[in-house]
Amino acid sequence: MKTFILWALSTAAAAASAFGTHDLQQPLTSSVSEIPRIGFGTWLLDKANVSEAVSTAIQTGYRHIDCATIYGNQKEVGKGIADGLKKANLKRSDIWVTSKLWNDHHEPKLAVEALQQTLVDLGIEYLDLWLMHWPVSTSPKTGKNKIGYLEAWHTMEGLHKTSQLRNIGVSNFSPSELKDLIDHSSTVPAVHQFEIHPYLPQNDFLDYHHELGIK
Q1: Which helix (H) or strand (E) holds 136?
Q2: Which segments of 17-94 are extended strands (E)?
Q3: From 62, 71, 126, 149, the catalytic residue
Q4: What is the chain's pLDDT, residue by residue, as a tens digit (215 residues)?
Q5: Active site residue 71
């Protein structure tokens, strides 16, 4: 069983003065009021044992499960969440579940379908956090990639107003892409998840987040 510490979770609480009239996302109503800083990642976990791994993680104290559509194992992750909650005598609101929108579902209709499928696969009624996995849009018809994220983000903003999403954010954005998204939207990302660890500290990028008001 492999575990992955999510060094890359940088929470974003933006000051209103930093972004003018941008909407600030409201605190969660679930019992988990903040993102648990250490999460159990499900990337590269095999379908054969991912359910057991997730269940065991919850039973041993993990309260953040990080998953994604592209990982191809969300149904099994969902079974593990259900089993882990039951055996640990926990409620859904006792854990934080993050998932991610993949590149080929950036079109509005496809993004809505992606969220619904994610919730069905995971067997839950809402996500604590839904991230745009990459600032890249892949054509579902041709498979060609292009830098694109605003259309998907605007769809996510609309879905954030429903009961199915508690928070929305981004992942793997560059400084210029992050600034561009904020300049052309009304909602500041609650979270930017990106790679950071002792071998890749990205201090300048962290400073850039602080400059934008993202903590």
Answers
A1: strand 136-138
A2: 40-41, 64-66
A3: 71
A4: 333 334 333 333 232 233 344 554 444 444 445 889 899 999 999 999 999 999 999 999 999 999 999 999 999 999 999 999 999 999 999 999 999 999 999 999 999 999 999 999 999 999 999 999 999 999 999 999 999 999 999 999 999 999 999 999 999 999 899 999 999 999 988 889 998 899 999 999 888 877 776 65
A5: yes
